[in-house]
Structure formats: structure tokens, C-alpha cells
């Protein structure tokens, strides 16, 4: 294999390493965010639970006050009924009847309020139960995520260390100027950096390269760049021919 093909081969190998490094770096970036999202959701649920608990306490307090008022009004009505039997004056009798009627109307209104409060309290207690259940499930999920995250991060960091060594080895065969071009392109465009050219079309930008550039590429004497996207390019058939020769030799 010529030095040119060895260099191309090493650049392609280098790119595979860089592709995996990018994926791992993304993993290292995303994984903690997943955990942070769960923790944020936990905080949100705790705040919502506190609000629901506050509503429940308020409703229970209102319910207690209504019960006390109904009981007090009931006693007053009972006393008024007892007094009513002893009243001889028609005017006083009608006044007491009006007072009792008003108290009964107030009681009916309070009973309606009590019913509405009971319905709202039931809804809030149901919401409280649902939130508590979700918090328990979230806490369990969070614990699992934390354990899994530590394992994932540990594996990713070990793999990155190994890939760093592979990257250094892959770059040994490539001349410094070519390596500099590779790094320059890599810092400015999305992967891939080095792409094959098939039927005269760049595998990166998918645009046909000029005929003269394609002729130079086919010669296989120097590493060229796509005139359009600036990625490093190689003719795919160079490797197909190499593979055929290797196959015959074996």
C-alpha cells in the first residue's frame, strides 16, 4: 500500500475515533441534564404538594368553622322554639318566627357551603394522593438514575481515555500539515471531515467536484479537499482496488 493510501486509511480510522468521542462527549453532557430534569420535576412536585396541603388545611378549617356555626345556630333555633311556646304577645310571636326563619335560611345556606367544601376537599385530597404517589415513583426513579448515571459516566470516561490513545496512534502516520488541515476542518464543520468520492460526487456535501480535481484525486498522489465544502476527500475505488489485490494475494 502506498504512503498516500496509508495516510487516507489513518485519517478514516481517526475520524471513526472522533465520531465515537463526539457521541461519548454528548453522553457526558446529556446524562447529567436528565438527572437535573428529574430533580427539577421533584422540586416542582414538592411545591405543588405544599400548595395542595395549604388548600386542604384551609378547607378543613372552613369546614370546622361551618360545623361550629351550624351547631350554634341549631341551638339558637331550639331555644327560640322553646321560648315560642311561652310567648303570649302576637307581635313578639311573629318577630321570633321571623328570626327563626332567618336562622333556618342561614343554616340551609351554610349546609350548601358545607357540601361544596366537602366536594372541593375530596378533590384536593385526591390530588394530594396522586402527587404523593408521583413523588414516591420519581424518588425511586431518581435513585436508579443516579446509580446508572455514575456507571454510564465511569464507562464513558474510561472509553474516552482509550480513544484518546487510539487517536494519538492514528495520527502518527499522518504528516503534521495534513493533520493540521484535518483539525482545522473538524473545528469548523460538522462531521465527517474526510469523505469518499463516488462517481465524481463528494460524500460530504453531495455536490459533483470539478473534472480536473477528480482527475487529480484519481491519481492518488496527494490528499485533496472538496472545492465546495473543504472536507478532505479520497477516491473510493482506491480502497476497492487495494482490497481486491489483498484478496488475490491471500
Comma- or semicolon-separated keywords:
about 250 residues, 5 helices, rod-shaped, Helix Hairpins, disordered C terminus
What does this structure look like?
This protein has 250 residues and is mainly alpha-helical. The chain has two domains: 28-170, Orthogonal Bundle (Helix Hairpins); 176-249, no CATH class. Helices cover 80% and strands 5% of the residues. Strands 2-1-4-3 form a four-stranded mixed β-sheet. The two termini are 15 Å apart. It is built from five helices and four strands, in the order αααββαββα. The protein has helices at residues 3-84, 90-170, 176-188, 211-219, 236-249; strands at 194-198, 201-202, 224-225, 232-235.
Quick structural summary:
This protein has 5 helices and 4 strands, in the order αααββαββα. It has helices at 3-84, 90-170, 176-188, 211-219, 236-249, and strands at residues 194-198, 201-202, 224-225, 232-235. Residues 242-250 have low confidence and may be disordered.
Number of DSSP helices? 5
**SS content category:** mainly alpha
How are the strands ordered across the major sheet?
Answer: 2-1-4-3
The rounded Rg comes to 41 Å
Strand content: 5-15%
Number-wise, the strands total: 4
Question: Low-confidence parts lasting 5 or more residues at pLDDT below 50?
Answer: 242-250
Outline: rod-shaped
Average pLDDT: 85
Amino acid at each position: 500500500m502506498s504512503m498516500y493510501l496509508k495516510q487516507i486509511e489513518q485519517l478514516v480510522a481517526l475520524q471513526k475515533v472522533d465520531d465515537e468521542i463526539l457521541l461519548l462527549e454528548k453522553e457526558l453532557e446529556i446524562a447529567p441534564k436528565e438527572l437535573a430534569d428529574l430533580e427539577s420535576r421533584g422540586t416542582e412536585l414538592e411545591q405543588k404538594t405544599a400548595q395542595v396541603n395549604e388548600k386542604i388545611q384551609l378547607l378543613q378549617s372552613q369546614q370546622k368553622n361551618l360545623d361550629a356555626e351550624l351547631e350554634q345556630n341549631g341551638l339558637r333555633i331550639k331555644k327560640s322554639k322553646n321560648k315560642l311556646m311561652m310567648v303570649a304577645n302576637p307581635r313578639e310571636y311573629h318577630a321570633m318566627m321571623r328570626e327563626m326563619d332567618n336562622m333556618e335560611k342561614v343554616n340551609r345556606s351554610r349546609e350548601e357551603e358545607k357540601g361544596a367544601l366537602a366536594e372541593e376537599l375530596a378533590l384536593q385530597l385526591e390530588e394530594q394522593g396522586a402527587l404523593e404517589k408521583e413523588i414516591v415513583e420519581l424518588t425511586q426513579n431518581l435513585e436508579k438514575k443516579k446509580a446508572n448515571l455514575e456507571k454510564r459516566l465511569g464507562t464513558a470516561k474510561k472509553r474516552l481515555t482509550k480513544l484518546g490513545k487510539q487517536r494519538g496512534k492514528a495520527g502518527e502516520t499522518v504528516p503534521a500539515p495534513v493533520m493540521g488541515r484535518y483539525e482545522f476542518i473538524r473545528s469548523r464543520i460538522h462531521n465527517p471531515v474526510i469523505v469518499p468520492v463516488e462517481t465524481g460526487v463528494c460524500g460530504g456535501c453531495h455536490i459533483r467536484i470539478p473534472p480536473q480535481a477528480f482527475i487529480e484525486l484519481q491519481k492518488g498522489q496527494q490528499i485533496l479537499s472538496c472545492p465546495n465544502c473543504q472536507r478532505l476527500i479520497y477516491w473510493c475505488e482506491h480502497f476497492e482496488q487495494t482490497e481486491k489485490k489483498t484478496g488475490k494475494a491471500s
